[in-house]
Design a protein that fits this description.
By secondary structure, the protein is α+β, with helices and mostly antiparallel strands. It is built from 16 helices and 20 strands.
Length: about 525
Protein backbone atom coordinates (compact mmCIF):
# COMPACT_ATOMS: atom_id res chain seq x y z
CA UNK A 1 0.00 0.00 0.00
CA UNK A 2 1.19 3.51 -0.75
CA UNK A 3 2.73 5.33 2.26
CA UNK A 4 0.22 8.16 2.18
CA UNK A 5 -2.58 5.67 2.86
CA UNK A 6 -0.96 4.05 5.92
CA UNK A 7 -2.86 6.25 8.36
CA UNK A 8 -6.10 5.71 6.43
CA UNK A 9 -5.52 1.95 6.43
CA UNK A 10 -5.13 1.86 10.21
CA UNK A 11 -8.28 3.91 10.67
CA UNK A 12 -10.27 1.77 8.24
CA UNK A 13 -9.12 -1.37 10.06
CA UNK A 14 -10.68 -0.04 13.25
CA UNK A 15 -14.01 0.81 11.61
CA UNK A 16 -15.69 -2.63 11.61
CA UNK A 17 -15.08 -3.21 15.34
CA UNK A 18 -16.11 0.31 16.27
CA UNK A 19 -19.37 0.04 14.39
CA UNK A 20 -20.01 -3.47 15.65
CA UNK A 21 -19.81 -2.20 19.23
CA UNK A 22 -21.89 0.87 18.40
CA UNK A 23 -24.45 -1.22 16.56
CA UNK A 24 -24.77 -3.64 19.51
CA UNK A 25 -25.60 -0.80 21.87
CA UNK A 26 -27.91 1.18 19.61
CA UNK A 27 -29.02 -1.18 16.81
CA UNK A 28 -27.96 1.55 14.43
CA UNK A 29 -27.76 0.88 10.69
CA UNK A 30 -24.53 2.23 9.22
CA UNK A 31 -23.33 2.61 5.62
CA UNK A 32 -19.63 3.33 5.09
CA UNK A 33 -19.01 5.10 1.81
CA UNK A 34 -15.55 5.32 0.21
CA UNK A 35 -15.56 8.54 -1.83
CA UNK A 36 -12.99 9.44 -4.47
CA UNK A 37 -12.12 12.83 -3.02
CA UNK A 38 -9.00 13.67 -1.03
CA UNK A 39 -11.02 15.46 1.65
CA UNK A 40 -14.55 15.91 2.93
CA UNK A 41 -16.24 18.66 0.89
CA UNK A 42 -17.05 21.95 2.61
CA UNK A 43 -19.87 21.48 5.13
CA UNK A 44 -20.98 25.07 5.75
CA UNK A 45 -23.70 25.19 3.09
CA UNK A 46 -22.08 25.30 -0.36
CA UNK A 47 -19.82 22.28 -0.95
CA UNK A 48 -16.51 22.67 -2.68
CA UNK A 49 -14.87 19.97 -4.85
CA UNK A 50 -17.30 20.21 -7.70
CA UNK A 51 -20.76 18.96 -8.64
CA UNK A 52 -20.12 15.50 -7.22
CA UNK A 53 -19.77 16.95 -3.74
CA UNK A 54 -23.43 17.94 -3.61
CA UNK A 55 -24.42 14.32 -2.99
CA UNK A 56 -22.12 14.16 0.06
CA UNK A 57 -22.33 17.42 2.05
CA UNK A 58 -24.84 19.34 -0.08
CA UNK A 59 -28.24 17.75 -0.54
CA UNK A 60 -27.69 15.62 2.55
CA UNK A 61 -27.31 18.42 5.12
CA UNK A 62 -29.14 21.14 3.20
CA UNK A 63 -32.02 21.82 0.84
CA UNK A 64 -32.40 24.23 -2.10
CA UNK A 65 -35.43 26.33 -2.96
CA UNK A 66 -35.89 24.30 -6.15
CA UNK A 67 -34.69 20.71 -5.98
CA UNK A 68 -33.77 18.04 -8.49
CA UNK A 69 -35.52 14.68 -8.36
CA UNK A 70 -32.58 12.36 -7.64
CA UNK A 71 -34.32 9.42 -5.96
CA UNK A 72 -35.52 7.76 -9.18
CA UNK A 73 -33.32 5.68 -11.46
CA UNK A 74 -35.56 4.41 -14.27
CA UNK A 75 -36.00 7.78 -15.99
CA UNK A 76 -34.42 11.23 -16.02
CA UNK A 77 -35.28 13.35 -13.01
CA UNK A 78 -36.87 16.79 -13.14
CA UNK A 79 -37.11 19.99 -11.16
CA UNK A 80 -39.32 19.54 -8.08
CA UNK A 81 -40.32 21.78 -5.17
CA UNK A 82 -37.73 22.08 -2.41
CA UNK A 83 -37.91 24.69 0.32
CA UNK A 84 -40.09 26.63 -2.11
CA UNK A 85 -43.42 24.88 -2.51
CA UNK A 86 -44.00 26.72 -5.79
CA UNK A 87 -42.46 29.36 -8.03
CA UNK A 88 -43.69 31.43 -10.93
CA UNK A 89 -42.52 34.21 -13.18
CA UNK A 90 -44.26 37.58 -12.90
CA UNK A 91 -46.56 37.92 -15.91
CA UNK A 92 -45.97 41.69 -16.06
CA UNK A 93 -42.20 41.56 -15.62
CA UNK A 94 -40.56 38.31 -16.69
CA UNK A 95 -37.36 39.23 -14.87
CA UNK A 96 -39.11 38.74 -11.55
CA UNK A 97 -39.69 35.31 -10.00
CA UNK A 98 -41.82 34.78 -6.90
CA UNK A 99 -41.08 31.84 -4.61
CA UNK A 100 -43.65 30.66 -2.09
CA UNK A 101 -41.81 29.12 0.87
CA UNK A 102 -42.77 26.11 2.96
CA UNK A 103 -44.12 26.74 6.43
CA UNK A 104 -43.15 24.67 9.45
CA UNK A 105 -39.64 23.72 8.26
CA UNK A 106 -36.97 23.77 10.96
CA UNK A 107 -33.22 23.95 10.71
CA UNK A 108 -31.26 21.25 12.54
CA UNK A 109 -30.67 23.72 15.41
CA UNK A 110 -34.44 24.13 15.86
CA UNK A 111 -34.67 27.63 14.37
CA UNK A 112 -37.32 28.43 11.78
CA UNK A 113 -36.85 28.53 8.01
CA UNK A 114 -38.46 31.60 6.47
CA UNK A 115 -37.95 34.42 3.97
CA UNK A 116 -35.41 36.15 6.20
CA UNK A 117 -33.26 33.00 6.04
CA UNK A 118 -33.41 32.96 2.23
CA UNK A 119 -32.38 36.60 1.91
CA UNK A 120 -29.65 36.08 4.52
CA UNK A 121 -28.27 33.13 2.53
CA UNK A 122 -28.34 35.06 -0.74
CA UNK A 123 -26.39 37.83 1.00
CA UNK A 124 -24.02 35.17 2.34
CA UNK A 125 -22.83 34.33 -1.18
CA UNK A 126 -23.65 37.43 -3.27
CA UNK A 127 -23.30 40.49 -1.00
CA UNK A 128 -19.62 40.84 -0.15
CA UNK A 129 -20.35 43.73 2.24
CA UNK A 130 -22.70 41.65 4.39
CA UNK A 131 -21.40 40.47 7.76
CA UNK A 132 -22.19 36.84 6.93
CA UNK A 133 -20.52 36.90 3.49
CA UNK A 134 -18.30 33.83 3.07
CA UNK A 135 -15.77 33.99 0.25
CA UNK A 136 -15.34 30.20 0.27
CA UNK A 137 -19.02 29.49 -0.24
CA UNK A 138 -19.45 32.37 -2.66
CA UNK A 139 -16.67 31.04 -4.88
CA UNK A 140 -18.52 27.74 -5.18
CA UNK A 141 -22.01 28.98 -6.00
CA UNK A 142 -21.75 32.46 -7.53
CA UNK A 143 -20.80 31.05 -10.99
CA UNK A 144 -23.72 28.61 -10.70
CA UNK A 145 -26.35 31.35 -10.20
CA UNK A 146 -25.14 34.08 -12.58
CA UNK A 147 -28.63 35.32 -13.50
CA UNK A 148 -29.46 36.82 -10.09
CA UNK A 149 -29.51 40.63 -10.06
CA UNK A 150 -31.42 41.34 -6.85
CA UNK A 151 -33.80 39.81 -4.32
CA UNK A 152 -36.17 40.86 -1.59
CA UNK A 153 -38.57 39.53 1.00
CA UNK A 154 -42.24 39.83 0.06
CA UNK A 155 -43.59 38.35 3.28
CA UNK A 156 -42.58 35.86 5.96
CA UNK A 157 -42.94 33.04 3.44
CA UNK A 158 -42.41 34.68 0.06
CA UNK A 159 -39.31 35.90 -1.73
CA UNK A 160 -38.87 37.69 -5.04
CA UNK A 161 -35.71 37.18 -7.10
CA UNK A 162 -35.01 39.48 -10.06
CA UNK A 163 -32.75 38.28 -12.86
CA UNK A 164 -30.35 40.46 -14.85
CA UNK A 165 -32.19 39.63 -18.05
CA UNK A 166 -35.36 37.66 -18.76
CA UNK A 167 -34.23 34.08 -18.20
CA UNK A 168 -36.72 31.24 -18.72
CA UNK A 169 -34.04 28.73 -17.65
CA UNK A 170 -33.39 30.43 -14.30
CA UNK A 171 -35.01 27.73 -12.09
CA UNK A 172 -32.35 25.24 -13.29
CA UNK A 173 -29.72 27.28 -11.46
CA UNK A 174 -31.39 26.98 -8.07
CA UNK A 175 -30.73 23.33 -7.08
CA UNK A 176 -27.14 24.50 -6.58
CA UNK A 177 -28.03 27.22 -4.04
CA UNK A 178 -28.42 25.70 -0.56
CA UNK A 179 -29.85 27.24 2.60
CA UNK A 180 -27.99 27.19 5.92
CA UNK A 181 -29.10 28.44 9.34
CA UNK A 182 -28.49 32.10 10.25
CA UNK A 183 -29.07 31.24 13.90
CA UNK A 184 -26.32 28.62 13.92
CA UNK A 185 -23.87 31.12 12.42
CA UNK A 186 -24.68 33.50 15.28
CA UNK A 187 -24.39 30.69 17.85
CA UNK A 188 -20.94 29.72 16.53
CA UNK A 189 -19.63 33.23 17.03
CA UNK A 190 -20.19 34.33 13.41
CA UNK A 191 -17.26 32.12 12.45
CA UNK A 192 -17.74 29.92 9.35
CA UNK A 193 -14.75 27.79 10.35
CA UNK A 194 -16.57 26.85 13.55
CA UNK A 195 -19.83 26.32 11.68
CA UNK A 196 -18.04 23.71 9.53
CA UNK A 197 -17.86 21.28 12.46
CA UNK A 198 -21.42 22.01 13.65
CA UNK A 199 -23.41 23.03 10.57
CA UNK A 200 -27.17 23.41 10.50
CA UNK A 201 -29.32 22.97 7.44
CA UNK A 202 -32.82 21.63 6.85
CA UNK A 203 -31.68 18.44 5.05
CA UNK A 204 -32.41 14.74 5.64
CA UNK A 205 -29.10 14.24 7.48
CA UNK A 206 -27.27 16.07 10.26
CA UNK A 207 -23.49 16.19 10.65
CA UNK A 208 -22.51 14.20 13.75
CA UNK A 209 -18.73 14.19 13.38
CA UNK A 210 -16.14 15.71 11.07
CA UNK A 211 -12.46 14.76 10.88
CA UNK A 212 -10.91 16.54 7.89
CA UNK A 213 -9.35 14.16 5.32
CA UNK A 214 -10.55 11.17 7.38
CA UNK A 215 -14.32 10.99 7.80
CA UNK A 216 -17.66 12.70 8.12
CA UNK A 217 -20.53 11.03 9.98
CA UNK A 218 -24.00 11.92 8.74
CA UNK A 219 -26.91 10.85 10.92
CA UNK A 220 -30.59 10.61 10.00
CA UNK A 221 -32.69 13.71 10.62
CA UNK A 222 -35.75 12.09 12.17
CA UNK A 223 -37.61 15.41 12.06
CA UNK A 224 -37.03 16.00 8.34
CA UNK A 225 -39.87 17.94 6.74
CA UNK A 226 -40.17 15.78 3.60
CA UNK A 227 -41.57 12.48 4.85
CA UNK A 228 -41.32 10.97 1.34
CA UNK A 229 -37.53 11.39 1.46
CA UNK A 230 -36.60 10.10 4.91
CA UNK A 231 -33.15 8.49 5.13
CA UNK A 232 -33.28 4.67 5.05
CA UNK A 233 -29.99 4.37 6.97
CA UNK A 234 -29.32 5.80 10.43
CA UNK A 235 -25.72 6.79 9.77
CA UNK A 236 -23.60 7.26 6.66
CA UNK A 237 -19.85 7.56 7.14
CA UNK A 238 -18.04 9.31 4.29
CA UNK A 239 -14.43 8.16 3.98
CA UNK A 240 -12.15 10.05 1.55
CA UNK A 241 -10.08 7.51 -0.40
CA UNK A 242 -8.74 9.28 -3.52
CA UNK A 243 -6.75 6.29 -4.81
CA UNK A 244 -9.02 3.96 -6.83
CA UNK A 245 -7.15 0.77 -5.93
CA UNK A 246 -7.17 1.65 -2.24
CA UNK A 247 -10.93 2.22 -2.46
CA UNK A 248 -11.42 -1.18 -4.07
CA UNK A 249 -9.31 -2.89 -1.43
CA UNK A 250 -11.27 -1.18 1.33
CA UNK A 251 -14.47 -2.59 -0.18
CA UNK A 252 -13.00 -6.07 -0.67
CA UNK A 253 -11.73 -6.11 2.92
CA UNK A 254 -15.10 -5.11 4.37
CA UNK A 255 -13.89 -1.74 5.60
CA UNK A 256 -16.45 0.18 3.53
CA UNK A 257 -19.79 -0.86 2.03
CA UNK A 258 -19.94 1.25 -1.11
CA UNK A 259 -17.40 2.99 -3.32
CA UNK A 260 -17.63 5.27 -6.33
CA UNK A 261 -15.50 4.91 -9.48
CA UNK A 262 -14.05 1.42 -8.93
CA UNK A 263 -10.92 0.73 -11.02
CA UNK A 264 -12.01 -1.12 -14.17
CA UNK A 265 -9.33 -3.81 -13.95
CA UNK A 266 -10.60 -4.86 -10.50
CA UNK A 267 -14.22 -5.33 -11.62
CA UNK A 268 -13.86 -9.08 -12.28
CA UNK A 269 -12.44 -9.58 -8.79
CA UNK A 270 -15.20 -7.48 -7.21
CA UNK A 271 -17.95 -9.33 -9.07
CA UNK A 272 -16.36 -12.69 -8.28
CA UNK A 273 -16.38 -11.80 -4.59
CA UNK A 274 -20.11 -11.05 -4.65
CA UNK A 275 -20.00 -7.29 -4.98
CA UNK A 276 -22.49 -5.59 -7.29
CA UNK A 277 -21.70 -2.98 -9.93
CA UNK A 278 -24.29 -0.20 -10.18
CA UNK A 279 -24.35 2.26 -13.07
CA UNK A 280 -26.86 4.30 -15.04
CA UNK A 281 -27.28 6.70 -17.92
CA UNK A 282 -25.45 9.78 -16.68
CA UNK A 283 -25.62 13.27 -18.19
CA UNK A 284 -21.93 13.93 -17.68
CA UNK A 285 -19.18 14.44 -20.25
CA UNK A 286 -15.38 14.21 -20.00
CA UNK A 287 -13.85 16.87 -22.32
CA UNK A 288 -10.90 19.15 -22.88
CA UNK A 289 -12.26 22.70 -22.80
CA UNK A 290 -10.17 24.81 -25.21
CA UNK A 291 -9.16 28.42 -24.79
CA UNK A 292 -10.02 30.46 -27.89
CA UNK A 293 -8.39 33.59 -26.48
CA UNK A 294 -5.64 35.35 -28.54
CA UNK A 295 -2.36 33.47 -28.28
CA UNK A 296 -3.97 30.10 -27.58
CA UNK A 297 -2.76 27.24 -29.81
CA UNK A 298 -6.43 26.20 -30.14
CA UNK A 299 -7.69 29.35 -31.90
CA UNK A 300 -7.49 27.57 -35.27
CA UNK A 301 -10.70 25.57 -35.77
CA UNK A 302 -8.78 23.08 -37.93
CA UNK A 303 -6.64 22.17 -34.92
CA UNK A 304 -9.69 21.78 -32.66
CA UNK A 305 -11.43 19.57 -35.21
CA UNK A 306 -8.27 17.53 -35.77
CA UNK A 307 -8.02 16.85 -32.03
CA UNK A 308 -11.60 15.59 -32.01
CA UNK A 309 -10.83 13.21 -34.88
CA UNK A 310 -7.65 11.85 -33.28
CA UNK A 311 -9.25 9.97 -30.38
CA UNK A 312 -10.33 6.34 -30.59
CA UNK A 313 -13.19 6.63 -28.14
CA UNK A 314 -14.01 2.93 -28.30
CA UNK A 315 -10.49 2.28 -27.04
CA UNK A 316 -11.13 4.68 -24.17
CA UNK A 317 -14.31 2.76 -23.35
CA UNK A 318 -12.24 -0.46 -23.37
CA UNK A 319 -9.70 1.20 -21.08
CA UNK A 320 -12.64 1.86 -18.75
CA UNK A 321 -13.82 -1.79 -19.05
CA UNK A 322 -17.04 -0.52 -20.59
CA UNK A 323 -17.73 2.08 -17.89
CA UNK A 324 -18.20 4.91 -20.40
CA UNK A 325 -19.86 5.68 -23.73
CA UNK A 326 -18.25 7.48 -26.71
CA UNK A 327 -19.01 11.20 -26.97
CA UNK A 328 -20.18 12.82 -30.20
CA UNK A 329 -20.60 16.24 -28.63
CA UNK A 330 -21.44 17.86 -25.32
CA UNK A 331 -24.63 15.78 -25.24
CA UNK A 332 -25.55 12.22 -26.08
CA UNK A 333 -27.31 11.92 -29.49
CA UNK A 334 -30.49 10.81 -27.67
CA UNK A 335 -30.80 14.27 -26.08
CA UNK A 336 -33.63 16.47 -27.42
CA UNK A 337 -31.04 19.25 -27.70
CA UNK A 338 -28.41 17.35 -29.74
CA UNK A 339 -29.53 18.73 -33.12
CA UNK A 340 -27.84 17.82 -36.41
CA UNK A 341 -24.23 19.02 -36.38
CA UNK A 342 -22.37 19.06 -39.69
CA UNK A 343 -19.09 18.13 -38.00
CA UNK A 344 -19.24 14.41 -37.21
CA UNK A 345 -17.05 13.51 -34.28
CA UNK A 346 -15.32 10.14 -34.57
CA UNK A 347 -11.95 8.47 -35.08
CA UNK A 348 -10.34 9.43 -38.39
CA UNK A 349 -6.55 9.77 -38.25
CA UNK A 350 -6.04 10.59 -41.97
CA UNK A 351 -8.56 13.42 -41.78
CA UNK A 352 -7.03 14.66 -38.53
CA UNK A 353 -3.53 14.70 -40.02
CA UNK A 354 -4.79 16.47 -43.13
CA UNK A 355 -6.35 19.23 -41.01
CA UNK A 356 -3.14 19.60 -39.01
CA UNK A 357 -1.13 19.84 -42.25
CA UNK A 358 -3.46 22.59 -43.48
CA UNK A 359 -2.82 24.42 -40.21
CA UNK A 360 0.96 24.05 -40.71
CA UNK A 361 1.72 21.27 -38.22
CA UNK A 362 2.88 17.65 -38.30
CA UNK A 363 4.60 15.11 -36.05
CA UNK A 364 7.90 16.59 -37.24
CA UNK A 365 6.67 20.12 -36.54
CA UNK A 366 4.24 19.70 -33.64
CA UNK A 367 1.88 22.18 -32.10
CA UNK A 368 2.59 22.46 -28.38
CA UNK A 369 -0.07 22.94 -25.71
CA UNK A 370 -0.35 22.69 -21.93
CA UNK A 371 -3.48 21.21 -20.36
CA UNK A 372 -4.36 21.44 -16.68
CA UNK A 373 -5.83 18.22 -15.25
CA UNK A 374 -6.78 16.74 -11.88
CA UNK A 375 -5.09 13.88 -10.06
CA UNK A 376 -8.57 12.41 -9.63
CA UNK A 377 -11.87 13.04 -7.88
CA UNK A 378 -15.59 12.58 -8.43
CA UNK A 379 -16.42 13.19 -12.09
CA UNK A 380 -12.84 12.91 -13.31
CA UNK A 381 -13.16 9.16 -13.95
CA UNK A 382 -9.67 7.61 -14.33
CA UNK A 383 -8.03 10.97 -14.79
CA UNK A 384 -4.37 10.08 -15.25
CA UNK A 385 -4.71 6.95 -17.46
CA UNK A 386 -7.32 8.64 -19.66
CA UNK A 387 -5.27 11.80 -20.04
CA UNK A 388 -2.19 9.77 -20.93
CA UNK A 389 -4.24 8.01 -23.64
CA UNK A 390 -5.39 11.36 -25.07
CA UNK A 391 -1.83 12.69 -24.89
CA UNK A 392 -0.50 9.73 -26.91
CA UNK A 393 -3.36 10.00 -29.41
CA UNK A 394 -2.81 13.70 -30.03
CA UNK A 395 0.93 13.12 -30.50
CA UNK A 396 0.10 10.92 -33.49
CA UNK A 397 -1.26 13.94 -35.38
CA UNK A 398 1.36 16.47 -34.30
CA UNK A 399 -0.14 17.92 -31.11
CA UNK A 400 2.36 17.73 -28.26
CA UNK A 401 0.51 18.05 -24.96
CA UNK A 402 2.09 18.54 -21.54
CA UNK A 403 0.14 18.44 -18.29
CA UNK A 404 -0.13 20.57 -15.19
CA UNK A 405 -1.46 18.07 -12.62
CA UNK A 406 -3.27 19.51 -9.58
CA UNK A 407 -5.69 18.46 -6.85
CA UNK A 408 -9.35 18.74 -7.88
CA UNK A 409 -10.28 21.83 -5.86
CA UNK A 410 -7.23 23.62 -7.28
CA UNK A 411 -8.48 22.67 -10.75
CA UNK A 412 -11.83 24.30 -9.98
CA UNK A 413 -10.01 27.48 -8.97
CA UNK A 414 -8.33 27.56 -12.39
CA UNK A 415 -11.70 26.85 -14.02
CA UNK A 416 -13.61 29.62 -12.27
CA UNK A 417 -10.80 32.07 -13.07
CA UNK A 418 -11.11 31.56 -16.85
CA UNK A 419 -8.53 31.04 -19.57
CA UNK A 420 -7.42 34.70 -19.63
CA UNK A 421 -6.44 34.67 -15.94
CA UNK A 422 -2.75 34.88 -15.17
CA UNK A 423 -2.87 31.53 -13.35
CA UNK A 424 -3.84 29.98 -16.70
CA UNK A 425 -2.64 32.07 -19.63
CA UNK A 426 0.34 33.29 -17.63
CA UNK A 427 1.51 29.71 -17.17
CA UNK A 428 0.84 28.70 -20.76
CA UNK A 429 -2.28 26.68 -19.89
CA UNK A 430 -4.60 26.68 -22.90
CA UNK A 431 -7.06 23.87 -22.10
CA UNK A 432 -8.64 22.38 -19.01
CA UNK A 433 -9.87 18.83 -18.44
CA UNK A 434 -12.93 18.89 -16.22
CA UNK A 435 -15.99 16.65 -16.19
CA UNK A 436 -19.18 18.62 -16.88
CA UNK A 437 -22.76 17.92 -15.77
CA UNK A 438 -25.11 18.09 -18.77
CA UNK A 439 -28.50 17.34 -17.23
CA UNK A 440 -30.27 20.59 -18.04
CA UNK A 441 -30.06 23.34 -20.66
CA UNK A 442 -28.17 25.81 -18.49
CA UNK A 443 -25.62 23.32 -17.19
CA UNK A 444 -25.16 21.53 -20.50
CA UNK A 445 -25.06 24.42 -22.93
CA UNK A 446 -25.77 28.05 -22.22
CA UNK A 447 -23.26 28.58 -19.42
CA UNK A 448 -20.44 27.51 -21.77
CA UNK A 449 -21.65 29.13 -25.00
CA UNK A 450 -22.88 32.54 -23.86
CA UNK A 451 -20.22 35.22 -24.43
CA UNK A 452 -21.62 37.13 -21.44
CA UNK A 453 -20.61 34.25 -19.17
CA UNK A 454 -16.87 34.60 -19.84
CA UNK A 455 -15.08 34.56 -16.47
CA UNK A 456 -15.43 36.22 -14.03
CA UNK A 457 -19.13 36.45 -14.98
CA UNK A 458 -19.54 32.69 -15.40
CA UNK A 459 -17.78 29.56 -16.64
CA UNK A 460 -17.43 30.17 -20.37
CA UNK A 461 -13.83 29.20 -19.62
CA UNK A 462 -12.29 29.58 -23.05
CA UNK A 463 -13.96 32.82 -24.10
CA UNK A 464 -16.23 31.33 -26.79
CA UNK A 465 -17.99 34.10 -28.72
CA UNK A 466 -20.43 33.32 -31.51
CA UNK A 467 -22.95 36.14 -32.18
CA UNK A 468 -25.48 33.71 -33.71
CA UNK A 469 -25.30 31.56 -30.59
CA UNK A 470 -25.71 34.62 -28.36
CA UNK A 471 -28.80 35.58 -30.38
CA UNK A 472 -30.25 32.07 -29.96
CA UNK A 473 -29.58 32.18 -26.21
CA UNK A 474 -31.36 35.54 -26.03
CA UNK A 475 -34.40 33.87 -27.59
CA UNK A 476 -34.14 30.90 -25.20
CA UNK A 477 -34.17 33.26 -22.23
CA UNK A 478 -37.41 34.86 -23.35
CA UNK A 479 -39.12 31.66 -24.54
CA UNK A 480 -41.22 29.85 -21.96
CA UNK A 481 -42.54 27.31 -24.51
CA UNK A 482 -40.42 24.16 -23.97
CA UNK A 483 -40.78 22.93 -27.56
CA UNK A 484 -39.47 26.21 -28.91
CA UNK A 485 -36.72 26.09 -26.29
CA UNK A 486 -35.71 22.62 -27.48
CA UNK A 487 -35.31 23.81 -31.08
CA UNK A 488 -33.17 26.77 -30.05
CA UNK A 489 -31.08 24.64 -27.70
CA UNK A 490 -30.47 22.20 -30.56
CA UNK A 491 -29.10 25.09 -32.60
CA UNK A 492 -26.74 26.04 -29.74
CA UNK A 493 -25.42 22.49 -29.46
CA UNK A 494 -24.99 22.21 -33.22
CA UNK A 495 -22.91 25.37 -33.19
CA UNK A 496 -20.78 24.16 -30.27
CA UNK A 497 -19.99 20.92 -32.13
CA UNK A 498 -19.46 22.59 -35.50
CA UNK A 499 -17.07 25.06 -33.86
CA UNK A 500 -15.35 22.19 -31.98
CA UNK A 501 -15.61 24.21 -28.79
CA UNK A 502 -14.17 21.28 -26.81
CA UNK A 503 -12.48 17.95 -27.35
CA UNK A 504 -15.25 15.61 -26.25
CA UNK A 505 -14.05 12.13 -25.29
CA UNK A 506 -16.61 10.04 -23.39
CA UNK A 507 -19.74 10.23 -21.27
CA UNK A 508 -19.53 8.85 -17.75
CA UNK A 509 -21.86 6.13 -16.39
CA UNK A 510 -21.01 7.01 -12.76
CA UNK A 511 -20.18 3.45 -11.63
CA UNK A 512 -20.49 2.37 -8.01
CA UNK A 513 -19.55 -0.94 -6.42
CA UNK A 514 -21.59 -2.04 -3.42
CA UNK A 515 -21.36 -4.74 -0.81
CA UNK A 516 -24.07 -7.41 -0.42
CA UNK A 517 -24.81 -5.67 2.90
CA UNK A 518 -26.32 -2.81 0.91
CA UNK A 519 -29.92 -3.83 0.25
CA UNK A 520 -30.92 -0.77 -1.78
CA UNK A 521 -29.22 2.09 -3.60
CA UNK A 522 -31.09 4.00 -6.30
CA UNK A 523 -28.68 5.53 -8.77
CA UNK A 524 -30.22 8.56 -10.44
CA UNK A 525 -29.69 9.55 -14.06
CA UNK A 526 -27.84 12.62 -12.87
CA UNK A 527 -24.65 13.70 -11.20
CA UNK A 528 -26.80 14.43 -8.14
CA UNK A 529 -27.36 11.27 -6.11
CA UNK A 530 -29.74 10.92 -3.18
CA UNK A 531 -28.06 9.15 -0.27
CA UNK A 532 -31.39 8.79 1.53
CA UNK A 533 -32.02 5.83 -0.80
CA UNK A 534 -29.19 3.75 0.72
CA UNK A 535 -30.65 0.95 2.83
CA UNK A 536 -28.54 -1.57 4.75
Amino acid sequence: MKPQFTKLSRWLAALPLAFALHGTLHAETVARYGISMADIPLTTGQPDRGAGAYQFTGHTLYDPLVAWEANVGNRPGKLVPGLASEWKVDAKDNKKWVFTLRKGVKFHDGSEFNADAVVWNLDKVLADKSSQFDAKQSAQVRPRIPSIASYRKLGDYAVEITTKEIDALFPYQLPWFLISSPTQWETMGKDWNKVASKPSGTGPFKLDKLVPRERADLIKNTAYWDKTRMAKTDRIVLVPIPDAMTRANALLNGQVDIIETPPPDVLPQLKGAGFKLVQNVTPHVWPYHFSTQPGSPWTDIRVRKAANLAIDRNAVVSLMSGLATPAKGQLDPTSPWFGKPDFKIGYDLPAARALMAQAGYSQAKPLKAKVIIAQGGTGQMLSLPMNEFVQQSLAEIGIQVTFEVVELENLYLHWRSGAKADMNAGKGISAINLGYVTADPFYALTRFADSRYVAPNGVNWGGYNNPKVDAAIDQIRTTFDTKKQDGLLSFVHQAMVNDALMLWVVHDVNPHAISPKVKEFIQAQHWFQDLTTIRM
